[in-house]
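We emphasize that the prediction below concerns an isolated chain of 398 residues; any contacts that depend on oligomerization or on bound cofactors are therefore not represented. The input was used exactly as deposited, without trimming of termini.
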Amino acid sequence: MKKVVLVYSGGLDTSVCIPLMREDYGYNEVVTVTVDVGQPIEDIRQAESKAQIMKTEHYTVDAKEEFARDYCFKAIQANGDYQGYPMSTSIARPIIAAKAVEVAKKIGATSFAHGCTGKGNDQFRIELGIRTLLPEALIHAPVRERNMTRSWEIEYAQKKGVPIQQSLEKIWSIDENLWGRSIEGGRLEEPDFAPPEEIFQWTKNAKLAPDHPLEVAIRFHNGQPVAIDGQEASAATLIKKMNHLAGECGVGRIDVMEDRLMGLKVRENYECPGATVLLKAHAALEALVLTRDELRFKKIVDGEWSRMAYEGLWWDPLKDDLEAFIAQTQERVEGSVKLRLFKGSCQVVGRSSLWALYSEELASFDTATFDQRESTGWVKNFGLQARLYQHLRLKSGR
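Result of the prediction step, given as a token string:
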């Protein structure tokens, strides 16, 4: 029996792979694997139902807590951001690949399939994960290999009796997990098309958000959130709670032109209310407890970590090296941050920590602890080389 493990979301791209694997790729047995990283329970049940209808051997893997703890929280510590938005889809792909490999090893399979296109980033992330964890893997990518279009897939699905939700008129492609929700496709591909309100599910229209601000307090330990308004909870529960609180206030809608790995510029819409607030709070706390040079250098490290995470290089040794530095800095990122959420805005209004490098006694205008007279010599010599250069320039007439 030829057996293939299909990384299965239940969406259009992966659903059409099922008959393709059987009829065109010659596999007798298709094993579908859906990894739960926080997508709606209806999507999980829908994937299971479709798998049953299409007679696959199906596995649903609950990875929500692991994803929140080992992926989302690492993104917080690294201030994970790609071109202005918190990465959600990208950091979920490595754990999805890892869980698919776990199932494959369990059932004795070495062939895989996925529904990633040849234009997107996920083909890199998924395939790198599979090949890293199972070097002998054979991977099929039907959408890429056959240069398929979305409209062709819809027609093929209808012809083969594959249950789908998309239509040629309403063709949003949605990916969702604990850390964020991405919406693309259809007219959203037009850079000047205003997104319709119907695409948003996590965030209220700012106009309809409450008319009074909401203040929340987030407590951190080792650079990771551990409590919201004094209530501790698991990693996944904290993220869900913040998604709800921030989403009700209209926080977290992002519309960007994104540069993909292939070099294509694409228009993307994201909803990431919880991530927006947690990342802002974390950065505010770092600014309170880390030294100026730590913050300067960590910005470089965070940028490189974000690039590698975006590209799916989760098992690269350099990423481990970067995380070692990040982990060292996070030992002092401990304390609380207060934020005000109001009609789409998120504002830090307070922060406190036992490791704060701020001293009111030294910084206040109303104290004499810092002897201002001692600054005179420093100020006189500040920018000395620049002053000498300008003097020589004027002297030479250049």
